[in-house]
Design goal:
396 residues, Lyase, Ornithine Decarboxylase, Chain A, domain 1, elongated, single chain, binds pyridoxal-5'-phosphate, 8-stranded parallel barrel, 12 helices, TIM Barrel
C-alpha cells in the first residue's frame, strides 16, 4: 500500500560522517558516547543506532531502560548507558539486557545490588555510572551526600563504579564561568572518591556544546589528574545541528572548533510531505479553522498532508512558508491536526503530487529546525523530538 505522503528522510551517511567528524575532534582527548535517546532525537533509533555503531561508536546513550532494550536489540555489542537512571522495578531488566545505568539514589543502588545477586552476578562485574550534581539540581548525588554511595561499592558488591558523570548545563555561555565552577566540583568529587579507596575508569561529562566549544581538552586533563579517561556525550551535533552559542562571543570570537563544525556537520533529517489537492478561491474566501486567513484577491491554494499531529506547531499558521518547486509557499490559515493549506498563487506550475519540504532543502532554499524553533519559542531538540510517530522515517 502507498503511504500517506508525510515522511522524514534520514541520511544515515551524513550521520556517520558527523560521528566521525566529532570523534576526530575529540580524538586524543575523549571517547564519544552517541546519544540516541528519544528515538534518536526523533530520527529513528532503528536507523541511527546501527549507523553510529558502524561509524565507530562503542557507546550509545538512551534515556530509559525501555529505550535501552530497543537499542540492545539493534546493537548487541554496544555499551548502552541509561542516562536518566533506572525507575523502580527496572533493575533486573537493566541487568538482563546488559545496560549500564547511571545512578545516584540509594534505592537505585539497592535494587541493582539485589537484582545482581539474584542473577548471580559476580562481585564487581555490574558497571554503573555515578551521576553527581554539580549545580544543575536535576539528577545526581550532591557532594555532601557522596558518603552514602560509597558503601555500595564494597569488595563483595556486584556493582562496579565504572564512571562518574555530570551534565554541563551552560557550556554554550561565552565566559565559561559556570562550567569552570562545575569542573571544580567534579575535581573535588573525584578527590573524595579516590580518598574513599574507589576508582572509576571514565569521567563522563559534556554534551554537544561542550564538545564543540573545545572542552574535550579540559575534561581530559581533569580525568588524567585522577587516572581516568574522558567521555563526552554529543546528541544534537550528531544529527548535524550546531547549538547556538551565547551571542556574547561577538563576531569572530567564538571557538574555532565551533565555526569549523558549523561548516562540516550535515543535517541528517529532512521532513517532507506532498501537495494532495489544489483549488482556486475567490476574493473573500476564508481558509482554515475560524477563517484566520481571508483571501483579499483570487488565489490558488494547495492542500498539504501534514498537521500538528505530525509535529507541525500550530503557532506557524499564517507565519511560515513551506518549500514547493524550490520556492517558499506561505502557510495560510491555521494548522489543522492533519493538514495545512499553502498559497501557491505565485507558483503556477505547482501540481498534485509535488514534494513539499518542511525541513530540508529544495532548489536554493532551505528550512532548518532552527527556523521552526525560532518562530515557535522553542529549540531544535524539541522540534525534532515532537515529530509525530506517524511520520514515516526512511533511510536515504
Ligand atoms: C541529552 C543529553 C545529552 C546530549 O545533549 P546534546 O545537547 O543534544 O548534545 C548529553 N548528556 C545528557 C545527560 C543528556 O541528557
Amino acid at each position: 500500500m502507498q503511504m500517506r505522503p508525510c515522511w522524514a528522510e534520514i541520511d544515515t551517511q551524513a550521520l556517520k560522517e558527523n560521528y566521525r567528524y566529532l570523534a576526530a575532534m575529540a580524538a586524543h582527548e575523549a571517547e564519544l558516547l552517541a546519544v540516541v535517546k528519544a528515538n534518536a532525537y526523533g530520527h529513528s533509533l532503528a536507523l541511527c543506532a546501527p549507523a553510529v555503531e558502524q561509524a565507530g561508536a562503542r557507546w550509545l546513550g538512551v534515556t530509559t531502560v525501555e529505550e535501552g532494550i530497543a537499542a540492545r536489540a539493534l546493537c548487541p555489542k554496544a555499551r548502552v548507558l541509561v542516562i536518566s537512571g533506572i525507575f523502580p522495578g527496572q533493575a533486573a531488566a537493566a541487568i538482563q539486557f546488559q545496560l549500564t545505568p547511571s545512578i545516584w539514589e540509594s534505592w537505585q543502588l539497592e535494587e541493582l545490588e539485589a537484582a545482581a545477586r539474584e542473577a548471580k552476578t559476580p562481585a564487581g562485574s555490574l558497571p554503573v555510572h555515578l551521576e553527581i550534581d554539580t549545580g544543575m539540581s536535576r539528577q545526581g548525588v550532591g557532594l555532601d551526600d557522596l558518603g552514602r554511595v560509597f558503601p555500595h561499592f564494597g569488595p563483595d558488591s556486584p556493582l562496579r563504579l565504572e564512571g562518574v558523570m555530570t551534565h554541563l548545563f551552560a557550556a554554550d555561555e561565552a565566559d565559561g564561568r559556570v562550567t569552570e565552577e562545575q569542573m571544580k566540583r567534579v575535581d573535588e568529587t573525584l578527590g573524595k572518591i579516590s580518598a574513599a579507596g574507589l576508582f572509576a575508569e571514565w569521567l563522563n561529562v559534556g554534551a554537544s556544546a561542550a564538545l564543540l566549544a573545545g572542552q574535550a581538552k579540559v575534561l581530559a586533563e581533569t580525568a588524567a589528574r585522577h587516572g581516568m579517561k574522558a567521555m563526552m556525550r554529543p546528541g544534537l551535533a550528531l544529527y548535524g545541528i550546531v547549538p547556538r552559542f551565547d551571542p556574547a562571543y561577538g563576531a569572530g570570537q567564538e571557538p574555532a572548533t565551533l565555526t569549523a563544525a558549523r561548516a562540516a556537520l550535515k543535517p541528517v533529517l529532512a521532513w517532507k510531505s506532498a501537495i494532495v489537492g489544489l483549488r482556486s478561491i475567490p476574493a473573500g474566501a476564508s481558509v482554515g479553522y475560524n477563517g484566520t486567513f481571508v483571501a483579499s484577491e483570487p488565489m490558488r491554494v494547495a492542500l498539504v498532508a501534514v498537521g500538528y499531529a505530525d509535529g507541525l506547531d500550530r503557532k506557524l499558521g499564517n507565519h511560515f512558508g513551506l518549500l514547493v518547486r524550490g520556492r517558499r509557499a506561505p502557510l495560510i490559515g491555521r494548522v489543522s491536526m492533519d493538514q495545512v493549506v499553502i498559497d501557491i498563487t505565485e507558483i503556477a506550475e505547482a501540481a498534485v503530487g509535488d514534494e513539499v519540504v518542511l525541513i530540508g532543502s529544495q532548489g536554493a532554499e532551505t528550512i532548518t529546525a532552527f527556523d521552526h524553533a525560532d518562530l515557535t519559542g522553542t529549540i531544535p531538540w524539541e522540534v525534532f523530538t515532537r515529530l509525530g510517530g506517524r511520520v514515516a522515517r526512511r533511510a536515504v
